[in-house]
TrEMBL record:
InterPro entries: ARM-like, ARM-type_fold, Exportin-1/Importin-b-like, Importin-beta_N, XPO6. It is found in: Cytoplasm; Nucleus. Residues 201-227 are annotated as: Disordered. GO terms for cellular component: cytoplasm; nucleus. Residues 31-97 form the Importin N-terminal domain. Keywords: Cytoplasm, Nucleus, Protein transport, Transport. GO terms for biological process: protein export from nucleus. Belongs to the exportin family. Pfam families: IBN_N (PF03810), Xpo1 (PF08389). GO terms for molecular function: nuclear export signal receptor activity; small GTPase binding. This is Importin N-terminal domain-containing protein.
């Protein structure tokens, strides 16, 4: 009987052959049949976890993660509780250990698998799911991973798959809606952190050309945490355009790679959240001011 290491070498050989330029279509169909039969075997999830942890072949990684995705979506209920726990904990550990070195598509696939499990198990059998995700924002090493998780959560749980029962889809939407204020606060804080990180460089920035416009931000005292009411938007823009001493104008230097990544991912996540959350009750002038500041930076030719 072949060892796990020998089976892994054989799988790597099959995947390399399948994607090789000299492989004929009949041979590719044979390989597809072999791989499909493997994915249907009882206990294939355990071998897939082993292969993902021990291979450097991206074809093998994606095949194993796709096989695990099918098992989670189609066979989850039939697994033993201890099997579900092992799959969940191992995948979460994988993404924590490899998110900075794995290709982005491997990282994103791992994140999605964890969220797929949460779609079926949170909060009844996965009570610490959201707590774990939010805790990732506390470390600079995992803050990007936290944002990737938040966007995937919004994509997969706000409008879950149709094969879920109506009651479960309704429950997920309700549970996620309860977390939205925390998500918005976190994303707003991350964007503000990017701004704060670069404000210290303002004094070293030469005065702009008269043809260019400064990006402006109102003072903290001018920002309200209450939901937007009638007339608030117009007053907010008046404050942006006023020349009072409470206004704080500054020109941000180009963002470093890390800050740019955090800003782009945060804004993308907010964009998806805005597609389904009740804007009138959850969006504050404070958050809008932060978003419009980055919008003005994006429009600045400098």
């Amino acid at each position: 009987m072949a060892t796990d290491q020998e089976s892994l070498r054989a799988l790597e050989g099959l995947m390399n052959e399948f994607f090789g330029s000299l492989t004929t279509n009949p041979r590719k169909r044979d390989i597809e049949t072999i791989l499909g039969n493997f994915g249907q075997q009882r206990g294939a999830w355990k071998q897939c976890l082993y292969y993902v942890a021990h291979t450097h072949n991206s074809y093998v990684s994606m095949y194993c993660l796709t096989t695990l995705e099918n098992i989670i979506n189609k066979q989850w209920v039939g697994l033993m509780p201890e099997e579900r726990t092992e799959i969940r904990s191992t995948l979460y550990r994988f993404v924590l250990e490899n998110h900075k070195v794995a290709p982005y598509y491997i990282r994103n696939k791992l994140v999605k698998l964890v969220v797929d499990i949460a779609r079926l198990s949170w909060p009844h059998f996965y009570p610490d799911f959201f707590t774990n995700v939010l805790s990732l924002s506390r470390s600079p090493d995992t803050v990007v991973l936290c944002i990737v998780f938040l966007q995937t959560i919004s994509e997969e749980l706000a409008c879950p798959r149709e094969e879920l029962s109506y009651s479960r889809r309704t429950e997920l939407r309700r549970l996620l809606s309860q977390q939205v204020p925390t998500m918005l606060t976190l994303l707003s804080s991350l964007l503000e952190g990017v701004v704060e990180k670069h404000k210290n460089a303002v004094t070293a920035t030469p005065p702009p050309s008269p043809t260019h416009t400064h990006s402006q931000s109102p003072s903290r005292s001018a920002l309200s945490s209450s939901p937007i009411q009638t007339g608030t938007l117009s007053s907010m823009f008046d404050s942006l355009e006023s020349g009072t001493s409470t206004r704080m104008a500054f020109l941000l230097p180009p963002l470093d790679t890390e800050s740019e990544t955090i800003a782009l991912l945060s804004l993308n996540c907010l964009t998806h959240l805005f597609s389904w959350i009740p804007l009138s009750t959850l969006i504050t002038p404070h958050l809008l001011n932060t978003i419009f500041l980055f919008a003005s930076l994006g429009a600045d030719p400098q």
